[in-house]
Amino acid sequence: LPHGQIRDNDDEQGDVPKKQKYPYGVGFIIGNEFCERFSYFGARTILIIYFTKILKYPDDSAIDYYHIFTMACYMTTIIGAIIADTLWGKFKTILYLSILYAIGNIVLSLGAYVEKEYLCLMARISVYRVWYGWHKTMVIINLKTVAAFGGDQFGPGMEKQLEKYFSLFYAAINAGGFLSTIVTPILREDVKCFDRDSCFPLAFGVPAILMVVALVLFIAGRFICNYNMIPPKKDSVIVQTSLYRKLFTRRPKRDHWIDYADDKFDAQTITDIKGLMRVCFLFIPLPIFWALYNQQGSVWTLQAIKMNGNLFGSYTIKPDQIQVINPVLIIVFIPIFEYVIYPLCAKMNLLKKPLQRMVCGGVLAAISYVICGFIQIWVETKPDGTVNILWQLIPYIVITAAEIMFSITGLEFSYQQAPKSMKSVIQAVYTTTVAFGDIIVIIISSAKLFEKESNTFFFFGGLMVADMIAFAIMAYYYVPYKQPSPINNSDSDVDDSDNSKDFKKN
């Protein structure tokens, strides 16, 4: 595979059809994701300014609350994934939680309207925390279930189509983010409503409408294309059984603590759990990358507020609009990396494995923060509004290239390495690393380690380099999971003699 993914053994058995019909239902899934991401990024784009301008938070507190919000959103994906894989199934999980998602967005828009008319400042801050925090925490938990559900539409022997699906899926995410990052700041600042100088109710309301559209598209795909729906399994109970028996019962010693449930679960289920845990262990260093990446919407935006947004004397770019550079570059960079950079590197025997690309992406993220640090020094030594905002283009270009190599590759890798019964869970665990990245930002921001923001940028850059060194070492020793053969499901999921050598170059 071009991305160095592991092929299913299914396609090596000779019983796979030569040509399978393309699952056109993924078009509805990708459309759903586009609208949902417009809804999410549309609200998130203006959030830091809502905190500072309307709710009157100081910058440090606004940064903390912004990352608490994004942390809650991504942390709860694991809940939705467990429900999807073990209880409701992916379709029902996405459907039910999308309804809650839409309700939460509608309440948020209404809350932005009533807060000024009927509530004092402290009261509306409290109401905002409850409405926004609770609803968004509850409704975002189906995020990576959608990605896994789309992947389920592809059968054995369709690995290349699956790989392209993930690229299209990621492009849809960024297309939605691109449009929302342009539109919502305009609605926020240029539209006047309810006798105010801004219109946050409308800026939050349009994303709410798009979430309703996302729900309609998802339901339409069910009836028009008849989604392939894999029924949920109860495999997650094995973890509870194994832990209980290891800690509270006397049983013969096992090689692995999961093996304490070997009399209740078949060998393949146990090896699937072990494969899941190996991947989860590999995810430990990932939160540092997301700690850097997620600050585009907070620290980078606060830096942009102090810069000159005038472009060529005719248009002024708003500080929260500069974020649009990221999704635009993602859409442009994806085909460039797919068809130019990766093939050229492959000819030089470079970046052929997914984990190699992730390490390279992490190093690029560190470089982007070093660049931001030097820009911040310039901002700190000049009066506000002197340094042009276009200087931020340089770190945005670098961190977007980092995202292509790190995030898209990580999304594909986590899906390919997940046992078939745990696709949603592994996608959610991968997404949970984003939440832990926000926790890191909150801790460092609250600790106030540095007086100058430029030093904070350099600190994060150095932290990222150290993190990628650790990740590279872990990747060197990682042994990949192999999907079980349909002929003999009792076989081990790992061939140490072959695969460990192959992944020494990850």
Can you walk me through this structure?
The radius of gyration is 23 Å and the shape is globular. It is mainly α and 506 residues long. A two-stranded antiparallel sheet has the order 1-2. The chain starts with 24 loop residues before the first helix and ends with a helix. It folds into 2 domains: 24-228, Growth Hormone, Chain: A; 246-506, MFS general substrate transporter like domains (Growth Hormone, Chain: A, Up-down Bundle). Helices cover 68% and strands 1% of the residues. Pfam families: PTR2.
Measured distance between first and last alpha carbons: 14 Å
Structural class: mainly alpha
Strand content: under 5%
- Approximate helicity band: 55-70%
GO cellular component, one term: membrane
Pfam families: PTR2
Membrane topology: Multi-pass membrane protein
Subcellular location: Membrane
Give the topology, please.
Layout: H1 25-45, H2 47-54, H3 59-75, H4 77-86, H5 90-118, H6 121-139, H7 143-151, H8 159-189, H9 200-224, H10 237-248, H11 267-282, H12 286-293, H13 299-305, E1 310-311, E2 315-316, H14 325-347, H15 354-381, H16 393-416, H17 423-447, H18 453-476, H19 496-502
Antiparallel strand pairs: 1-2
Helix pairs in contact: 1-7, 1-8, 1-9, 2-3, 3-6, 3-17, 4-5, 4-17, 5-6, 5-7, 5-9, 7-17, 8-9, 8-14, 12-17, 12-18, 14-16, 15-16, 15-18, 16-17
